[in-house]
Amino acid sequence: MSEIIKSILNRSSEPKLAEPAPDAAVLEEAFACAARAPDHALLRPWRYLVIEGEGLDALGRVFERAADSSDPLAPKAEKLRKMPHRAPMIIIGIARHQDHPKVPAIEETLSTGCGMAFLMLALEARGFSAMWRTGPVAYHPAVREGLGLEDNESITGFLYVGTPTVNKPTISPAEPKDFVAHWPSA
User: Which residues bind FMN (predicted)?
Assistant: First the structure.
């Protein structure tokens, strides 16, 4: 079994992440991997924000703006403010939607999502772990504004990155026979 296949089959989200976070050289390599995502018409429809240190506090304040006291099911402001401190680094994937006659916006979003997955696998290959999150904050106008997103941009996810603090039990893999069919069927 190749190292790539083994890495993919053993990948899992890590909810408890600590220092150290990847250094500049590891990040450069990981972003080079992200840039190899499928990209119809070579639009390079992605950009990333790396947040660490005091930036996590600033991101918490941005998340806090998404609190909705009128919704009893919505996360409370304090919880939102603390969310970025679940890891020493957060990488935000942002899809940049461009008008192109052959490339619909969904393809740009999918390309950015593929880049996020490649980024995560590259970081894991260097001994780090990650958890990809979205949730209501990814789509909230106050968060978009606080991060400086343009009208043609959308968040594809928040990649929480760091060093795992616990050894999680292995997750039973999904069986391809449960979700794959051949079409047309025989």
Answer: 11-13, 36, 40, 132-134
User: Is 70 among the annotated ligand-binding positions?
Assistant: no
pTM score, two decimals?
A: 0.93
Span 105-144, pLDDT tens digits: 999 999 999 999 999 999 999 999 999 999 999 999 999 9
Identify whether the C-beta of residue 103 lies closer than 8 Å to the C-beta of residue 117: no
Q: Are 39 and 45 in contact (CB under 8 A)?
A: yes
Question: Was 40 annotated as part of a binding site?
Answer: yes
Angle at 93 between CA 115 and CA 158, to 5 degrees: 115
CATH superfamily for 21-165 is: NADH Oxidase (3.40.109.10)
12 labeled part of a ligand binding site? yes
Q: Which two tokens stand for residue 173?
A: 């893999």
Identify which of 139, 93, 99 has the alpha carbon closest to the alpha carbon of residue 112.
Answer: 93
Domain boundaries, the chain: 21-165
| 97 is known to lie in a ligand binding site | no
Find the DSSP H helices in the chain.
Answer: 3-10, 24-34, 54-64, 77-82, 105-125, 141-146
Residue 154 labelled as part of a binding site: no
What is the rounded distance in angstroms from the CA atom of residue 48 to the CA atom of residue 71?
31
Number of Cβ atoms within 10 Å of the Cβ of 21: 21
